[in-house]
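Hi again,

Forgot to attach this to my earlier email, sorry! This is the prediction with S-adenosylmethionine bound. I've pasted everything inline since the attachment limit keeps bouncing my files.
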Amino acid sequence: MTSIFSDRPVWSRVPDDVGEVRLMRVDPYWRKTIGQPWAKAQSSTNSLQGERGMTQHLSPEKILQTGLAFWASKTLLSAIEMGVFTELSRGPESFDSLSGRLGLHPRSARDFLDTLVALGFLARGTDGYSNTPEADLFLDRRKPSYVGGILEMANSRLYPFWAHLTEALRTGLQQNESKTGAADLFVTLYADPARLKEFLGAMTGISHGANMTIARAFPWKDYRTFVDVGTAQGDLGVQIALANPHLHGTGFDLPEVAPIFEEYAGTAGVSDRLTFQPGDFFKQDIPKADVVLMGHILHDWDLPTKRMLIKKAFDALPVGGALVVYEAIIDDDRSMNAFGLMMSLNMLIETKGGFDYTGSDCSSWMKEAGFSTTRVEELVGPDSMVIAIK
Ligand SMILES: C[S@@+](CC[C@H](N)C(=O)[O-])C[C@H]1O[C@@H](n2cnc3c(N)ncnc32)[C@H](O)[C@@H]1O
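Structure tokens for the complex follow:
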């Protein structure tokens, strides 16, 4: 390829169907979709005749989109860090005023804002720049629909840590704060109130869609009580309580979480049916309830700890009770849920022994603990829940 910045047709070396490399003309379509590495690439390359006469479309588009996806990612993360979408939630703003208020250098300002237009997060009209509807709903910090918590954490923590992925792949070792001698992810986070708040907000951001689905899709009418283990800010419990007025629930988590949980439950108006119980699931039993929930918990830990937590959930339930485990459950063939697989790499970066797993892995651990039946149900996006009945 000559230059990725050229408007001229790009020539690329691509392997043909018998493994040889030849030059072919590639329409630079990828530049329009560079922010969407998982977008289905529209093939714009020559057709090749495969060995059995089948037409194959080979294109470097997906390779280039994925390889350079960090450009788009970091542009969006910096925009969130600078509060671009929160600033623009008041309405459109001229280039001069917006770039001045954001403190953008004249060299970067036009390119940065126009990149956000090209990526689909801002619109540009005669009255200046404005949020697109999605950016306005989900990236304005002042709205309850804000999902930027996880992206703030991605910007401040995950982005620098992922620069050391190759080292993690070679050594099997964490690449986060622990590298500088800090003990454990949660101990480190919980020692710093600002980071704790950021982390718990991030968890709400990543879990909210699935939480709302669980609150509606699970057969709650058959149960009266629930406990959410590792509840964080408590969004799962809040959504379940809001959608099911007959239920009483408990959020179980480390004591430092209490004030943040209680504020969140209070704001949602469910404090009379949703209470916090401080505890450490390594030292204490899980509180008893008809349904035990674990969202993004098991993947933090190694296999013996996963088994220990599932056994503690079994012991907390009555006969007929349910354990609901949910996160980005990997498909059994381990070939489809790229997000779930990358989440597992993220656990390599972030934890000592954590990893993500398939629905059938989880079902087998649940059966070992004594559960009689299990089933896997899709939630939203990459998330699924594994339900086990005692
Ligand atoms: C990855 S977050 C998941 C939060 C939430 N369930 C969700 O899906 O958004 C893990 C949670 O487990 C909690 N946690 C970690 N260690 C714990 C322990 N030993 N006992 C109780 N909770 C713990 C953390 O405080 C945190 O809230």
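Residues 193-217 form the longest helix (25 residues). The chain has a mean pLDDT of 87.

That should be everything now.

G.
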